[in-house]
Write a structure and sequence with these properties.
about 350 residues, TIM Barrel, eight-stranded parallel sheet, 13 helices, 12 strands, about 30% helix, elongated
Length: about 350
């Protein structure tokens, strides 16, 4: 099945020509409190997000307690947690009893509701509520769930962190067998918030995706500090951006540290809109706001002494000076001017025009 180069999320188009679509991943930053989840939805909207996203998982269906207990030193950011990995996942489950409340809050706030479902029950249950499915990087090998999501025929955002090109190709093929509405998102899955992670975000993977799948919709799911990678990704053609969102980076919880705040999110959106405005159409030309600059800053030929009509122009008579009014002669035309006769008198410093000269 072919893929689409433009899709719609409700009434908003996602395409290379459209403004970037921003997903605020609230994830576990609700801290187990429904009122906090609602508040973050409103704050995400105020900060400029287009969608508020949650993550629907059940610890018992996602995490092996003994499996994590036996990993030891392989643990990354989880080693700082004061509880076991299983207990943390269980603590930060997004209650499915909240669904109607979250959906209605998003409607009231004027922001799209999205989620990443991590089990078949969530995939089916969320279908009637969400505008699109997000598949997290960790599930890129779960082809059964990927196929189930694709068959729902809603837009699919696929993150590709900690994945090889073979993993990406497998997942993309699985989706496109059933659904052409795919956004392929570059991602680096490291949640430590270290600046060293900039060395691994590998934004040029977006260029590889463009070669493999020309005109496919692209995005970035990002966990690096700030928004430098966002600006880079948008420049390279990404039109969907997902980052984690909180209102307080100092709060205790698995996602707060590397999340964007309302202030940094707004700055990210504003700078991105400026970037989009500046990308242009790619056609090199004298722009409308440069018309006067051509006159004021370019040089043209000016005589450096008083010359009478009939004088034969020599190179010694000419200086290349600003301005260059319409009809004046640019420096690269010097060989065509030398040896021609003046038709009019010229005072020292006067601009030399084509109309001032004989034909030969």
């Amino acid at each position: 099945m072919l893929y689409k180069s433009a899709i719609n999320i409700v009434d908003r188009e996602i395409s290379l020509a459209a403004p970037t679509y921003f997903i605020a991943d609230i994830a576990s930053n609700h801290d187990g409190e429904i009122e906090r989840a609602k508040d973050l939805i409103y704050k995400a909207k105020e900060a400029g997000a287009n969608a508020a996203k949650f993550q629907h998982f059940l610890a018992k269906d996602l995490v092996s307690a003994s499996g994590f207990n036996n990993l030891g030193s392989i643990m990354e950011h989880q080693r700082k947690w004061k509880k076991s990995t299983y207990e943390i996942y269980e603590q930060y489950e997004c209650s499915r009893e909240w669904t109607e409340i979250l959906v209605n809050t998003c409607k009231e706030a004027g922001i799209d509701f999205m989620t990443t479902p991590y089990d078949y029950e969530a995939i089916h249950e969320m279908e009637k509520h969400i505008v699109a499915y997000k598949i997290g990087s960790g599930d890129i090998t779960c082809t059964g769930e990927i196929e189930c999501i694709a068959k729902k025929n809603k837009p699919v955002f696929l993150a590709t962190g900690a994945s090889s090109m073979q993993d990406v190709e497998r997942a993309v093929s699985c989706i496109l067998e059933h659904n052409p509405k795919l956004v392929l998102m570059q991602c680096n899955t490291n949640y430590t918030s270290k600046k060293e992670n900039f060395a691994y975000i590998n934004l040029r993977a977006l260029e590889v995706f463009k070669i493999k799948w020309p005109n496919m919709l692209l995005g970035l799911s990002d966990h690096t500090p700030g928004h430098a990678t966002v600006l880079g990704a948008v420049t390279l053609g990404a039109r969907v951006i997902e980052k984690h969102f909180t209102d307080d980076n100092s709060r205790t919880g698995p996602d707060h540290l590397f999340s964007m705040s309302p202030i940094t999110w707004r700055d990210m959106v504003d700078r991105t809109r400026e970037l989009e405005y500046s990308l242009g159409d790619g056609i090199k030309k004298i722009e409308a706001n440069e018309i006067n600059t051509v006159i004021l800053q370019r040089r043209s030929m000016h005589v450096n002494k008083t010359l009478k009509a009939g004088s034969c122009v020599t190179i010694a008579d000419i200086d290349f000076l600003r301005p260059a009014p319409a009809g004046s002669i640019p420096p690269y035309e010097i060989d065509k001017i030398i040896g021609r006769n003046l038709l009019v008198d010229k005072a020292d410093g006067d601009t030399l025009f084509y109309a001032d000269l004989s034909d030969s």
